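Aim 2 progress update. The chain analyzed this quarter is reproduced below.
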Amino acid sequence: MPKEWYLLNRPLYNSGLENNEFDAYAQDGFQELLESFIAKEVLIYPKTIMKEPIITRAIVQNVTSDTSNNTLIRQILCPIGLLMCGQYVKIGESYWLVATYPDNNQIYEKAVLWKYPTYSLNSTQYGTGEYNREHITVGEGQHLMYLPYNQETVLLDDQFRFIMDRNAANPTVYRITQVDNTSYAVGHENEGGLIEWHTEEVRFNEATDSGEYMIADYISIKNTENPDDGSDEIPDGESKIILYDLDGDCKLALGESKQIRAMYATPDGIEKPLTDYIVNITPDNDGVKFSCDGSIITIAANNQRILIGKSFIIGVLDR
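Predicted structure tokens:
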């Protein structure tokens, strides 16, 4: 009667001790599973897809789920020592984010993956999706966003604006309201982990944001990347000074601070940062303070309720 045999790479001898048997066969047995049809080739990127990935075989679990939320979550089993929280893993044509601290059972390493290079969770609750201000209606969407901690992402702080939408004709802009880079600081010291952003929806600013390129504050970025001869003199002819509220709502809450960008525009439509100017706020009061750093004017309101409903005008005069 024919019999089927299962061949392991290790020689068939043992010492009689259970620990030795485990050490001898456990990882070899997993390696044979990786060479079978249940595993697939994946690419593991070290914190950025711009670097050369590690190519390995892995077992991807939870590829079929019973709920819509779980379709964005996977588990990955791979050889020990390859994974780190905050890495990217490319499975097929999709990119996934290593979202948990990887650990192992001395057989394989395991971690949870989230779909998309930046994982976003809609945290808007108990609202209609918009709220009315004095002259305009804007969205009140809120998102929690998770992205890898690295030397670039850690520099993005409060007030940073970005577009997150698939509707280029009427894109939605979000502003970072809080950055948490400690709660998910798992893995290697100062290297591994995620950053959590708390974001809120703000108004699309047609003067500075680009729906064509889906970049918020595109005008400011373009002027920085394509400077002229460096002269600070205003060209001959009529020019005008323009103030851009970087979150686009022209409102200031109690205890809040925001940034205004001072620019001047030449008659031919070229805009340039204004760096030498005088700021005046009217009516003059102690409730609103300001400071200047280059072309950025930071204004802040104290927490006095008497200021509610008050308005003020920011005046800028070129020197």
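Residues 126-139, 224-236 have pLDDT under 50 and may be disordered. The longest helix spans residues 18-34. These observations will guide the mutagenesis experiments scheduled for the next reporting period.
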